[in-house]
Every structure is written in C-alpha cells, then in structure tokens.
C-alpha cells in the first residue's frame, strides 16, 4: 500500500513544494502557480500526509524547510526541470507538422528575412512563421522564441550555436544627392556632406557610430537608433549614411560609395535550445536559415557589389 501511495503522488502537489521552496512563502508560491493560498496549503498538507513527514516549519517570517524538506526539495527541483524539458519537446511529438515557429533577430536581419520568406515557407510547409525584430535577448529555455539570430553570444548558456555569416556595412547616399554633390564620391564626403548618424540612447550600433564619429568634421544632421530610419532618410536625401549592404544594395534609390568597411562587418549566429531542435519544423527552419545565409554570403557581406 505504501508503494502504491507513493507511485500515485500528485505532480501538482510537488509543484507547490517546488514553488514554496523557491519563495519560502506559501502566498508567493500560490501566486506563482495561479492558485489560491488555501489550495496551495491543502496540496502541501496532502503531500506531507502522504510522505508521513513535515516538509516546512510555518514561521511568522515565512517557511523554513525541515530536514525532510531539505532532502526532498533538490529532487523535486530536478523533476521541475524535466517537466520544462517535456514542455519544450511536446510540439515535436505529433506526426504532422503544425503550429508556429518564432524567429527572433535584430531589425536588419528581420528585414532581410522578410525578403526571403519563400525559402523559409518551403522548408516548413503548413507552419506559421513569426519574425520577432528585437535587439534584446529572448529566453529560449521558456520558448519566448524557437530560434534566435544574434551577433554576440550569451555567456555560459548551454545552447546550440551555428555560425551563419557576416553582414557588411558601407557608405550610401541617394542617387540624386550624390549627383548634386560630387564630394560624396571622395574622401571629402566626411567634411563637405551632411550625414545620418547614430544616437547615444539605446546604442544598438556602437561600432558603426564610433567609426563614423571619428571621421565627421561636424555632427550628423540626423541621429537615430533605428536602421529602418537610416535607410528611409538616406533614400529621401537627408544625408549620407552607413547602412547594411544586404538592404541598401537592394534599394534602387541608393548608391553605394565605398566597399564594405573593414571592421564593421557583424558576424551572425543562430541559437536554439537542444530540445527545440528535436522538433522537425524547427530543425527544418534552422537548416533553411543556414542554407539561406550560405547562398547569400557574398550579398550579405557586401562583397557581391562594387562601390561606385
């Protein structure tokens, strides 16, 4: 009977134990689990009765694990990690591909991907794809995204990382602006032309800003944190600017004025959690992204087009 009782142990009761051990507060544990405090208290009491041992001392300052609690809490914490892994793996279990795959990337890469959606749709037919433009990290363990493309690698993270390639940057200007200002085609551009630069606030392009600021004879006419703003301002003739070759070379309104600038190329990496790559559609899209970046390597780096 004792073995049968232990085998029938309720996972919901163990979740209360895990949450209570994390917060040392029954009310905080209840809030975390989305249940009432009386219900959390009943579940914890039921677990203690099944085990025949008191797991916490109820003190005015909160909960204090007993010796029995100290022995059980680490085991339950490992069970919670396993439950999270099951949740990540669950979408991979159905035989047919379905659902949504979320890809997080900075806006430059997101805009590039939006121009290559046919290849991504072909890699995972019937699956909805979400492109999430963001400079900030997402939590791949909690599946805030399934795949992430980013420049800097996270420290100490046990993720699967694949190198995709480099995105190159060069100087561009609107064709009609360049036609009116011959200095734009020479080194005199840094002293004689108006420029679009990068803001200090939320500095997403620090390398580009440092490179440009070190060359300009006067402050930029416009500063921004958003590369889409840079591209549109370039096309409107606001000034010259530094932009990613994979986007600016595609715009017939713009003219490239330099080769890819050495030191400004930004290496891109594909990150995913190992469990998520077991899902066929996530694996298929990861492979499609790697193939896409490989096929467009020279275009992305800016080597596929010569400066004017």
SSE blueprint:
Elements: H1 2-7, H2 11-23, H3 26-33, H4 37-51, E1 56-59, E2 62-65, H5 67-89, E3 100-105, H6 107-114, H7 117-123, E4 128-133, E5 147-150, E6 160-167, E7 169-174, H8 175-180, H9 189-192, E8 195-198, H10 206-213, E9 222-224, H11 227-235, E10 240-244, H12 245-248, E11 254-256, E12 266-272, H13 280-295, H14 297-301
Parallel strand pairs: 3-4, 3-5, 8-9, 8-10
Antiparallel strand pairs: 1-2, 5-12, 6-12, 7-10, 7-11
Helix pairs in contact: 2-3, 2-4, 2-5, 3-4
Protein name: LysR family transcriptional regulator
Pfam families: HTH_1, LysR_substrate
Domain HTH lysR-type: 9-66
Oligomer: single chain
CATH topology of the largest domain: D-Maltodextrin-Binding Protein, domain 2
What is the CATH homology-level superfamily of the largest domain?
Periplasmic binding protein-like II
Look at the helices and sheets and give the structural class. alpha/beta
The total of beta strands comes to: 12
Q: Helical stretch count?
A: 14
CATH first level of the largest domain: Alpha Beta
- Tell me the CATH architecture of the largest domain: 3-Layer(aba) Sandwich
Q: What is the CA-based Rg, rounded?
A: 27 Å
The N- to C-terminal Cα distance equals: 84 Å
Strand/helix succession: HHHHEEHEHHEEEEHHEHEHEHEEHH
pLDDT averaged over residues? 85
The residue fraction in helices comes out at: 40-55%
